[in-house]
Structure formats: C-alpha cells, structure tokens
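Chapter summary example: a protein plus S-adenosyl-L-homocysteine.
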Amino acid sequence: MKPKIKKDIRSLSLENLRDFFTENQDQAFRGNQVYQWLWQKGIHNFEGMTNLSKSTRALLEAHFVINHIDIDQQQKSKDGTIKNAIKLHDNLVVESVLIPTATRTTACVSSQVGCSLDCKFCATSKIKRMRNLNADEIYDQVVAMDQQSRLCFDRPLSNIVFMGMGEPLMNYKNLINAIDKITQSEGLGMSPSRITVSTSGIPKMMMKMADDQVLFGLAVSLHSARQSLREQLMPFAEKFPLEDLAHAIKYWYKKTAKVVTYEYVVWKGINDDYQDINALVDFCKISPCKVNLIEYNPIGDDQFFQAEKDRIKAYETALEAERITVTIRRSRGKDIDAACGQLANKGERV
Ligand code: SAH
C-alpha cells in the first residue's frame, strides 16, 4: 500500500480546521487554537502546541505536516539592505529583501519561483517560472523579515512591496490569501495601506482586484507609454496593449479611489527622448497617478544603460509642469544584487 501523503496543514482555512475537529469528534474551537499557533505564533511543529492534549497533537501529526521556509543564506549590503535566499520545502529557492531607511523598513517579497514574463531588463526573467508560491510561503517571507527587522533595526516591518521575484497577479489567489493573513489580527495585523502590489500590467486581473475592493496599493511597471517600445521591452505587452491597461487603471480608480503608481526606468537611447516623455505625460492624464522614476540596476548585459541625469530631470520637469507627482528613487542593495530586477538566485549554492 502506498503511504498516505500528508497534507500541509497551512493550506487549510480557519473553517477547514474547525471542520476537521468536528469531523474528528472534537470541538470546533480547537481549530481556532491551531490557527493561532500556525499564523500568529508561527510554530513549525505540533509538539509545541501546548494547549492541546497529547492525543489531539497525535491526531494532527497523523494527518498533516507543517511546511515552512528556511533562510538559507543572507547577504548584507553596505547600505544596510539585507538579501535573503529562502529555501522552500521542495528545495527551490526565492529571494526576499529587507530595505531599511531612516523612517521605514520595507520588505520586498517574492510571489513566484522565477517568472513567466520576459521583461528584457530584468534578471528574474532569465529564470523560467517553476511554480507559484503558496500563500503560507508568501506569508512566511513577511514573518521572517519582520523578525529580522526587529533584530537588526529594533523596529517591526513598516511596509511590504510585492516587487520580488515573479508576477503577483499571476498568483492572485495565493497572494490575496497571504495578504489576508498579513493584515488579520490573528496574523500579523499590519495595515493594508502599508502594502503595495506591483504588476507588469495585466488588465483583467487589475480589474478583478478593483472588483474585490482590495485595500492595498497598486503599482504598475510601465517603462514606456509607447506601445511599440513597450512591446520591445516587455514582449508580453503585445497581449496586453496600453489601451487595455489604461482602461483597467481608470476602472481601478473608479472602484477604489486609489491613485496608481507607475514604475518607470529611463534608459539611455531607449526611452529618454521627448516623444517618450510626452507619451508618458499623456498617459498620466488618463487617471490620477504618481510616477516613480527608478534607477536602472544593471543585470550584466550590454543593452541597457541608465540615462543621463539631465534626461531624468527632463522627465521630472515635464511631469511636474502638469502637476503630476514624481519621485526619483535611488536603488538600494545594488552591491549584493538585491535591487529591483536583480533577483536571480545568484548567491544560490548548487
Ligand atoms: N512582476 C512585477 C513585480 C516584480 S519586478 C512587476 O513587473 O511589477 C519589480 C519592479 O522592478 C518592476 O517595476 C520592474 O519593472 C522593475 N525592474 C525589473 N528589472 C529592473 C532593473 N534591472 N532595474 C530597475 N528596475 C527593474
């Protein structure tokens, strides 16, 4: 007889856990106790669930395992940024980054192992997508970095950005499930207004998010407001034209009243011309927005180079002239390949 494969108990909802106990002639509230151990106290074994009887713990042991992540390697940047290589239960590895500033500590979290998109300027796109992360694997990254933040910087995590490996909106169900646990009082109790989900721009899913009335922020990686150029930079954009993206952004604002943030890298000789600037300004007029001009983080090829300072200034001036909020974001953790678009498991041991 084949041995029974035990289920990961962390894939069960609170209702599932309560049902499990009633089906096993116990009381439903045991489900709440277990849920708290798993999500609030972050325990990784059944023995430690000390308010359960020995026989209840044995029952859980017989049916379930508790999968969890481990920090496999850590690298610290000169600027304080910490990059974690996170080992999953099946030995695959993703990366998460903790970024301290004077007033915040931000966790940059991964949503997939690798990425199925093909952004030409992003190191993660060179690793094919292997699988989606489960909700608990997304949640665990946040818990691990919250602990790291308390330990290293003496304060809890203040912000979360889904800008690590993968496309969060292609793993929507698990993303939402993880954010629920991050924000629930039975979980980490963080405010959703401190969370930003970044997408390469998948209109259908952005509209679903709006319909679901999510409370976190939305960032869209735009990089060009000219369809032909955007397709060259992000070939999947052929399937998701700017017109559809604009429609989804308007819909998002109508339903949530939240201002979208555009992430935009300016590359030398690629999108640093006035036609690019004008196209972005026009695109920004479609719906209330903010623009983050992000510094390019080299990924070791000879195609992409950061634009000259005066070109970035030209973008800033043109946007400000139209009263569009724009910030120039310096990258962090570049020396350890921990900056935006540099996550590619380079530190991984083989
Ligand atoms: N798939 C999601 C989230 C991951 S990428 C998305 O596309 O938004 C997080 C951000 O880093 C995106 O804005 C992405 O366009 C940007 N990025 C990717 N490669 C980069 C690089 N080499 N330098 C700077 N930013 C980069």
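Key point: The pocket of S-adenosyl-L-homocysteine is lined by residues 119, 121-122, 163, 167, 198-200, 221, 263, 265, 294, 296-297, 299, 340-341 (CB under 6 Å).
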